[in-house]
């Protein structure tokens, strides 16, 4: 664990002391090294149980896929940011890279935390670099509003979580993951216990996001620069899912009744945000709402608390992380050429950039959960476990799948097929860098078809 | 100001606080507070600007009222119990009166109205002294008395955090913002006073460090409004990049050190079964965070080399001593991992 964490920390030093001409290559190389080393975390000789590194950091089959995704994402973010930062002054480029690296450090510490307060501190700590990335390097005036919404939605949800964790700690004595399984808070039907249950989950539901509290997400994703969008979509939303999975253990008897409205809200959110996607004019906004839709399914899967639900949720989180990040990178390739996010301004791109159309195709297919991709595996497992819980959810989830397919196809057809608009005279050909970026996103997704056991957690 | 006069005044301020620290007799404590007040008055109006003089008068009147109330309470206590010792106040009337008097002295809500206006009239350095040093003596006295009424301190604390949050939202004058920030932090300190007094001291010291960084950062930029902060990136780019972290630390965001007092206070409050109060106080910190965030937007996060928001100031080499700023900024940002050590120090 430390052989990943300490090099990541020292990459901060590398950022500031590298000669400027070699900055991006150096950082890219080191982050790829760290990412490759992190793949060792996927090798789990036993199916359950923790791999203790020390008293404070550990990983298990739930957190190791997310850790590997985090480490994998840093080189991808660096590849993606290289172009739009090229004209900035030197110190600002270094600052941007430092923010990305510090975000990775906080995320590694969050996913490998063994104690809930450490997880909480790191969960909150990821807000600061993300806030700075969104508000400083975003491109439109609305980014300030986006940053404010992002920070305050997340904090308003997570401060009650802090109090709830402290309540649990004062009555149970420990918040270490190891002992959580044996220490559920004894349930009496006091209203206060229900408020405590709500306080525990609210932070993660806001982060995921659940449909009613999702308003920060379209703003933040759209206004963020490409690396910000990538890390938000791929990893930060999964922090919410991961936290929820960890904390479900102590919430046990209450969840059977109290989770009802949230499951319904999540499923309704799948349909609503999917429908909104069909009416979007802004490409990044479409992808952002698609993220809300997929994560609604993840939230429902986790709240069901069945083995298939958890497994499906984890697989969908990983697969969606890669897919959504790939889609944002594709949207960014459009943005860098036309400096506009409006979909209809950049259509018919298959004529102009045919190789990029391949990546658009694959990413759209992944988004609509085509078999045999892991996206489908996750969705099918969640839908099945929801069906087991109640037959009627099939209406909502089936409709949701249909709408997901519609908007993914809509996005693909609108951007790639059809005639080229008359004003698109001069578009740069696709850079090799962009092809590499998308290959690195989609290749793990394709490889996971062969061995989904790597990412399906400890319950299946 | 004449350096001899300045020395005398600063010594007198120190003397006043030290007398209060060293006292176990109420009259001596009151005397220390009065010396402290009188010594800072010339410092406050040294610029002879009418606004500064107005601030001085307001400060004098409120502090004199508070001191008189304190004297009255201690005399009442002496009348009832027959002794003047600080620790042995066992009747509710004198104790409550002392608490309210000290609340007026430090500017807790609902006795906070003088604070923004007084701070607005002062220059940044004197404002810093007002926000930090002047709070020490009253806090010492608050720590000594046993509170008679549990809910009085909780009401003062919660009201202060809420007023500090809401009051600062409509301000664009930095000194008023700092005043409301001070009120909010004092509220946090008072919340935990009766349960875990060492935490009050910890919060006070952390607040001193953070607010010192912020005041001195503003002083280096010589700016007193949010608008004038927007050119600070050209005068002092590194300070501009550190100020968002100082502000977020004041807002209590992990992993910065400002989170430490808030976390420990919330822990203590939940242990005392005051969880709803803890949640309310935590959420009221979000209000303050909004205007801290707004300042950081203006100062750092919207800088651009192309936009001239004001006329560019002359950039002359600066003789300012920024070592204290460097030290306190480092402490403001990096102190959270030392929490276990600090708790151990507190509970010794």
TrEMBL record, chain A:
<keyword id="KW-0812">Transmembrane</keyword>
<feature type="transmembrane region" description="Helical">
    <location>
        <begin position="21"/>
        <end position="42"/>
    </location>
</feature>
<dbReference type="InterPro" id="IPR010227">
    <property type="entry name" value="NADH_Q_OxRdtase_chainM/4"/>
</dbReference>
<keyword id="KW-1278">Translocase</keyword>
<dbReference type="GO" id="GO:0008137">
    <property type="term" value="F:NADH dehydrogenase (ubiquinone) activity"/>
</dbReference>
<dbReference type="InterPro" id="IPR001750">
    <property type="entry name" value="ND/Mrp_TM"/>
</dbReference>
<feature type="transmembrane region" description="Helical">
    <location>
        <begin position="117"/>
        <end position="137"/>
    </location>
</feature>
<feature type="transmembrane region" description="Helical">
    <location>
        <begin position="62"/>
        <end position="81"/>
    </location>
</feature>
<dbReference type="Pfam" id="PF00361">
    <property type="entry name" value="Proton_antipo_M"/>
</dbReference>
<keyword id="KW-0249">Electron transport</keyword>
<dbReference type="Pfam" id="PF01059">
    <property type="entry name" value="Oxidored_q5_N"/>
</dbReference>
<feature type="transmembrane region" description="Helical">
    <location>
        <begin position="352"/>
        <end position="370"/>
    </location>
</feature>
<keyword id="KW-0679">Respiratory chain</keyword>
<comment type="function">
    <text>Core subunit of the mitochondrial membrane respiratory chain NADH dehydrogenase (Complex I) which catalyzes electron transfer from NADH through the respiratory chain, using ubiquinone as an electron acceptor. Essential for the catalytic activity and assembly of complex I.</text>
</comment>
<keyword id="KW-0496">Mitochondrion</keyword>
<feature type="transmembrane region" description="Helical">
    <location>
        <begin position="195"/>
        <end position="217"/>
    </location>
</feature>
<feature type="transmembrane region" description="Helical">
    <location>
        <begin position="229"/>
        <end position="248"/>
    </location>
</feature>
<feature type="transmembrane region" description="Helical">
    <location>
        <begin position="286"/>
        <end position="304"/>
    </location>
</feature>
<dbReference type="GO" id="GO:0003954">
    <property type="term" value="F:NADH dehydrogenase activity"/>
</dbReference>
<feature type="transmembrane region" description="Helical">
    <location>
        <begin position="260"/>
        <end position="279"/>
    </location>
</feature>
<dbReference type="InterPro" id="IPR003918">
    <property type="entry name" value="NADH_UbQ_OxRdtase"/>
</dbReference>
<keyword id="KW-0830">Ubiquinone</keyword>
UniProtKB/TrEMBL annotation, chain B:
<dbReference type="Pfam" id="PF00361">
    <property type="entry name" value="Proton_antipo_M"/>
</dbReference>
<feature type="domain" description="NADH dehydrogenase subunit 2 C-terminal">
    <location>
        <begin position="289"/>
        <end position="343"/>
    </location>
</feature>
<feature type="transmembrane region" description="Helical">
    <location>
        <begin position="233"/>
        <end position="253"/>
    </location>
</feature>
<keyword id="KW-1133">Transmembrane helix</keyword>
<feature type="transmembrane region" description="Helical">
    <location>
        <begin position="273"/>
        <end position="293"/>
    </location>
</feature>
<keyword id="KW-0999">Mitochondrion inner membrane</keyword>
<feature type="domain" description="NADH:quinone oxidoreductase/Mrp antiporter transmembrane">
    <location>
        <begin position="23"/>
        <end position="287"/>
    </location>
</feature>
<dbReference type="GO" id="GO:0008137">
    <property type="term" value="F:NADH dehydrogenase (ubiquinone) activity"/>
</dbReference>
<feature type="transmembrane region" description="Helical">
    <location>
        <begin position="92"/>
        <end position="115"/>
    </location>
</feature>
<comment type="similarity">
    <text>Belongs to the complex I subunit 2 family.</text>
</comment>
<dbReference type="InterPro" id="IPR050175">
    <property type="entry name" value="Complex_I_Subunit_2"/>
</dbReference>
<keyword id="KW-0830">Ubiquinone</keyword>
<dbReference type="GO" id="GO:0005743">
    <property type="term" value="C:mitochondrial inner membrane"/>
</dbReference>
<feature type="transmembrane region" description="Helical">
    <location>
        <begin position="323"/>
        <end position="346"/>
    </location>
</feature>
<keyword id="KW-0496">Mitochondrion</keyword>
<keyword id="KW-0520">NAD</keyword>
<dbReference type="InterPro" id="IPR010933">
    <property type="entry name" value="NADH_DH_su2_C"/>
</dbReference>
<dbReference type="Pfam" id="PF06444">
    <property type="entry name" value="NADH_dehy_S2_C"/>
</dbReference>
<feature type="transmembrane region" description="Helical">
    <location>
        <begin position="57"/>
        <end position="80"/>
    </location>
</feature>
<keyword id="KW-1278">Translocase</keyword>
<dbReference type="InterPro" id="IPR003917">
    <property type="entry name" value="NADH_UbQ_OxRdtase_chain2"/>
</dbReference>
<dbReference type="GO" id="GO:0006120">
    <property type="term" value="P:mitochondrial electron transport, NADH to ubiquinone"/>
</dbReference>
């Amino acid at each position: 664990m430390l052989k990943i964490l300490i090099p990541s920390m020292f990459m901060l030093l590398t950022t500031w002391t590298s000669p400027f001409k070699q900055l991006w290559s150096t950082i890219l190389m080191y982050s790829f090294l760290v990412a490759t080393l992190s793949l060792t975390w996927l090798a789990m000789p036993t199916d359950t149980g923790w791999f203790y590194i020390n008293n404070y950091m550990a990983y298990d089959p739930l957190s190791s896929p997310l850790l590997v995704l985090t480490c994998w994402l840093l080189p991808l973010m660096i590849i993606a940011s290289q172009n739009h930062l090229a004209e900035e002054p030197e110190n600002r480029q270094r600052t941007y890279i430092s923010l990305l690296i510090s975000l990775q450090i906080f995320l590694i510490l969050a996913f490998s935390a063994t104690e809930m307060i450490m997880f909480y501190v790191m969960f909150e700590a990821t807000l600061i670099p993300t806030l700075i990335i969104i508000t400083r390097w975003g491109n439109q005036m609305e980014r300030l509003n986006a940053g404010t919404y992002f920070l305050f939605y997340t904090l308003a949800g997570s401060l009650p979580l802090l109090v709830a964790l402290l309540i649990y700690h004062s009555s149970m004595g420990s918040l270490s993951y190891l002992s959580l399984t044996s220490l559920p808070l004894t349930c009496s039907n006091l209203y206060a216990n229900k408020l405590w249950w709500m306080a525990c989950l609210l932070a993660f539901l806001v982060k995921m996001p659940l449909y009613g509290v999702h308003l920060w997400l379209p703003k933040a994703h759209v206004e963020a620069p490409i690396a910000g969008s990538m890390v938000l979509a791929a990893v930060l939303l999964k922090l919410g899912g991961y936290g929820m999975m960890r904390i479900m253990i102590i919430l046990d008897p209450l969840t059977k009744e109290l989770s009802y409205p949230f499951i319904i809200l999540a499923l309704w959110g799948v349909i609503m945000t999917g429908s909104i996607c069909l009416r979007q004019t802004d490409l990044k906004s479409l992808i952002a709402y698609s993220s809300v839709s997929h994560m609604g399914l993840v939230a429902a899967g986790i709240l069901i608390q069945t083995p298939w639900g958890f497994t499906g949720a984890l697989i969908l989180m990983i697969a969606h992380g890669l897919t959504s990040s790939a889609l944002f990178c594709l949207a960014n390739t459009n943005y860098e050429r036309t400096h506009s996010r409006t979909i209809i301004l950049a259509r018919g791109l298959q004529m102009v950039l045919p190789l990029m159309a391949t990546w658009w195709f694959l990413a759209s297919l992944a988004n609509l959960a085509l078999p045999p991709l892991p996206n489908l595996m996750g969705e099918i497992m969640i839908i099945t476990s929801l069906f087991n819980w109640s037959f009627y959810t099939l209406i909502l989830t089936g409709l949701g799948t249909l709408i997901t397919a519609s908007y993914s196809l809509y996005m693909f057809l609108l951007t790639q097929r059809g005639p080229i608009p008359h004003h698109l005279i001069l578009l740069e050909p696709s850079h090799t860098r962009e092809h590499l970026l998308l290959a690195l996103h989609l290749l793990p997704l394709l490889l996971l078809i062969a061995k989904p056991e790597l990412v399906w957690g400890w319950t299946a | 100001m004449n350096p001899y006069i300045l020395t005398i005044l600063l010594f007198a301020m120190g003397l006043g606080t030290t007398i209060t620290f060293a006292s176990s007799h109420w009259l001596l404590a009151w005397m220390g507070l009065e010396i402290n007040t009188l010594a800072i008055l010339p410092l406050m109006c040294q610029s002879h600007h009418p606004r500064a003089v107005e601030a001085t008068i307001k400060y004098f009147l409120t502090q004199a009222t508070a001191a008189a109330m304190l004297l009255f309470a201690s005399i009442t206590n002496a009348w009832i119990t027959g002794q003047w010792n600080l620790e042995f106040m066992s009747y509710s009337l004198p104790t409550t009166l002392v608490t309210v008097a000290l609340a007026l002295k430090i500017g807790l809500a609902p006795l906070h109205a003088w604070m923004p206006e007084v701070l607005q009239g002062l220059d940044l350095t004197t404002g810093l002294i007002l926000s930090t040093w002047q709070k020490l003596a009253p806090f010492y006295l608050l720590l000594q008395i046993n509170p008679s009424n549990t809910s009085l301190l909780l009401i003062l604390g919660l009201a202060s955090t809420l007023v500090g949050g809401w009051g600062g939202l409509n301000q664009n004058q930095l000194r008023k913002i700092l005043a409301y920030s001070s009120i909010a932090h004092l509220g946090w300190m008072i919340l935990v006073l009766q349960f875990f007094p060492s935490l009050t001291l910890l919060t006070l010291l952390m607040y001193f460090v953070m607010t010192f960084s912020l005041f001195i950062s503003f002083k280096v930029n010589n700016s007193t409004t949010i608008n004038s902060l927007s050119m600070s990136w050209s005068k002092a780019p590194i300070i501009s990049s550190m100020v968002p972290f100082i502000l977020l630390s004041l807002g209590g965001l992990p992993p910065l050190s400002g989170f430490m007092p808030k976390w420990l206070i919330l822990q203590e409050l939940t242990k005392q079964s005051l969880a709803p109060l803890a949640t309310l106080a935590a959420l009221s910190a979000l209000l303050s965070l909004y205007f801290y965030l707004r300042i950081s937007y203006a100062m750092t996060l919207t800088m651009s080399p192309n936009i001239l928001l004001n006329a560019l100031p002359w950039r002359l080499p600066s003789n300012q001593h920024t070592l204290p700023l460097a030290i306190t900024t480092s402490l403001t940002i990096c102190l959270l991992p030392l929490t276990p050590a600090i708790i151990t120090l507190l509970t010794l």
